Amino acid sequence: MPWPTARDHEVFDLIDREVDRQNSGLQLIASENFTSPAVIEATGSVLTNKYSEGYPGKRYYGGNVVVDDIEDIARDRVKALFGAEHANVQPHSGANANMGVYLALLEAGDTVLGLSLDHGGHLTHGSPVNFSGRIYNFVSYGLTGSDQRIDFDQMRDLALEHKPKLIVAGATAYPRIIDPEKVRTIADEAGAMVLFDAAHIAGLIAGGAHPNPVPYSDVVTFTTHKTLRGPRGGCILSTAEHAAAIDKAIFPGLQGGPLEHAIAGKAVAFGEASQPEFRDYAAGIVANAAALAEALAGEGFRLVSGGTDNHLLLVDLRSFDEDLTGKEAQAVLDEAGITLNKNTIPDDPRSPFVTSGVRIGTAGVTTQGMGTEDMATIAGFIARTLRSRTDPAEIAAVKHDVGTLCAKFPVYS
Ligand code: DSN
């Protein structure tokens, strides 16, 4: 074989370091998780060699007999998992999935409602710096000022006023259940279609810990690598009515060759999520988030909306320390082996690069096997680090304690 026989240490030593980083620290980014070895094996397979433009049975190149079966398994499994009429498993990402939906259902300039980014929405829900906000006429709804829940009254008022073609529901930094039936009712009144972006909560839906938006939506998009615990990628579910338009929008409209190695990883993950144990996993994520929320509140942190009913918490740092920014908290917690991200809180006076909050998720630590009692320990680590953020010795001591906790829950050998 013409391949080099010497190991590429420059790259593989770094991968080893990343394995060590993931094993030895607390991974609390709400959009991350640990995939199973089976998902990693499928994603690292020879399927990466194959070109497969088109769909099963209708490809542009030969040699797709095996790939067709793999993509069919992925589509069948995900349709069964969510009760959907149609699935497209080719989107390379959640952003591509949403872009494909807009391409399928909208014309440039059409009006769309979406949750504003600074109240927990996503860039592709109409941010002016994103293609969505540049090509379509997005109107933003937000959270209530009182309980910081989705303001459905405002959504309805805006829908009746602007008559959008599409209402986008879903969020990236919203700790509460989003009632899909309420969105459907408003959309029907306004004559709009519904896209439910379930990127963050797909695993909770699959595991029965969040209401399934599929029966109430024209289209549901999600990423496969967050709570669903699959490989990095996207997926679109739709009614049969929109199937042909969605498929045409993804290929040839938006993407070229699908990543069949990623699609095989998705198929494995959909299979894992359909096992009865996955329901316990989803319930565990939610129980851990609730326990972490309670423990952090006990340490003096204010939680946006007062708590959580899903996999994430949005923490307003100002009640803990008025001067502490999300940027500083993220950096010092990283030093202590605790990985999370700074995040704006609703109506944040600070910029998105600084922020007054952090976002914390429990999907990864739940995969590791941690339980509610460990969440109290983690809250203590976070509070200790932030209280002692100018004391390198104490930060090092927390890092040691974090390592001891993580060593009890090894992820990858
Ligand atoms: N970057 C993802 C998240 O962290 O929520 C959204 O695209």
Molecular structure report:
This protein has 15 helices and 15 strands. Helix 5 (131-135) links the parallel strand 5 (111-115) and strand 6. The chain has 2 domains: 13-35 and 284-407, Alpha-Beta Complex (Aspartate Aminotransferase, domain 1); 44-273, Type I PLP-dependent aspartate aminotransferase-like (Major domain) (Aspartate Aminotransferase, domain 2, 3-Layer(aba) Sandwich), CATH 3.40.640.10. With 413 residues, the chain is α/β, with parallel strands linked by helices. The protein has a 7-stranded mixed β-sheet, sandwiched between helices. The structure holds D-serine.
Essential attributes:
413 residues; 4-stranded antiparallel β-sheet; Aspartate Aminotransferase, domain 1; alpha/beta; 15 helices; Aspartate Aminotransferase, domain 2; 7-stranded mixed β-sheet; 2 domains
Question: Could you give the topology of this structure?
Answer:
Blueprint: H1 9-24, E1 26-27, H2 37-43, E2 54-55, E3 58-59, H3 65-82, E4 86-88, H4 94-105, E5 111-115, H5 131-135, E6 137-141, H6 152-162, E7 166-170, H7 180-190, E8 193-197, H8 202-206, E9 219-223, E10 234-238, H9 240-254, H10 260-273, H11 276-298, E11 302-303, E12 312-316, H12 326-335, E13 338-339, E14 341-343, E15 357-361, H13 363-368, H14 372-387, H15 392-407
Parallel strand pairs: 1-13, 5-6, 5-7, 7-8, 8-9
Antiparallel strand pairs: 2-3, 4-10, 9-10, 11-12, 12-15, 14-15
The structure holds D-serine.
Residues 31, 94, 122, 172 line the site of D-serine.
